[in-house]
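Aim 2, interim progress. The first record below pairs a target sequence with its structure tokens.
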Amino acid sequence: MAKTTATRAKKTSTVSKAAARRPTPASPDAYYAALPADRKAIMLQLRRAMGKALPKGFAEVIQHGMPGWVVPLSMYPPGYHCTPNTPLPFVGLASQKSHIAVYHMGVYADPTLYRWFTEEWAKRVPRKLDMGKSCIRFKKPDQVPVDLIADLCKRMTPKEWVALYEARFRR
């Protein structure tokens, strides 16, 4: 029985083995400082553009081993249902092994925002969109559409994100 439970727990874990071995940076500044030179410039450019574009109320933190912006517990005390007592994630930014990733929860949760983003991508970017549910992947740092990502970030306030989150995910 114990073996079955341990096996089941392993299969449901959302943290990769590589991520589990990486130390969690103490701050967003520490995360960016540790980036390799070929990724640092674009990651800092994305950080500045996203931080400037996001509506007032989101807070920059390290969450899930990467920098991102959240709805702080002071604004939304219930926090994230998957990890109680942690702020509600909204957008994350990560330098993965083979790509740069922007994790935007709003584009995953809101079909209208998703439609806007995919249509804007087709208008502005001459490459195929590489996207999962909330993960937008960029294999080449020089091909990141920073302005489009900034435009995406400004399209939802913390209050709107909390309302959508509660309607779609909170049980």
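The second target in this work package is listed in the same format:
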Amino acid sequence: MAAKANHEDARLLLQLYDLRRERRLRRARDFVQQECQFKDHKDFAKKYPEGSKESRYVSMAMGYWDMACTLVAKGLINEELFNATNFEHVGLWFRFKPLIEAWRKEWKYPRLMGSLEAVAGKHPIAASYQRQLAAAARSRRAGRKR
């Protein structure tokens, strides 16, 4: 059984929250959640070439959440407390999973965003989120066949 959350967990969690409020990171998170649209790895690379502002936004948001999840995965922040106050990383992981898997192969770095994957995959909402994404994908495919 995991250790109970303590004041240090809460302090670190609040510091992570403060980082999320930083102007550039907030803009990057907004872009990733609301504006970034791509069909696959090739489409992403075409729309958001490496070095572009949008590509940097994706890197910034993904990096933030992988860092936060690393603190959880390494036991520095209580996972139950983290999950009770965060779920943005779950949506980010499942939405960008195909892209990250392509990057892992391209860059020969199989652990890229590994903490994000591990922590998001264990989140209590992860299973229902996966089902929603699968249903949406089936609906899009059915619409294209008509």
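Residues 87 and 123 are 8 Å apart (CA to CA). This observation will shape the mutagenesis plan for the next reporting period.
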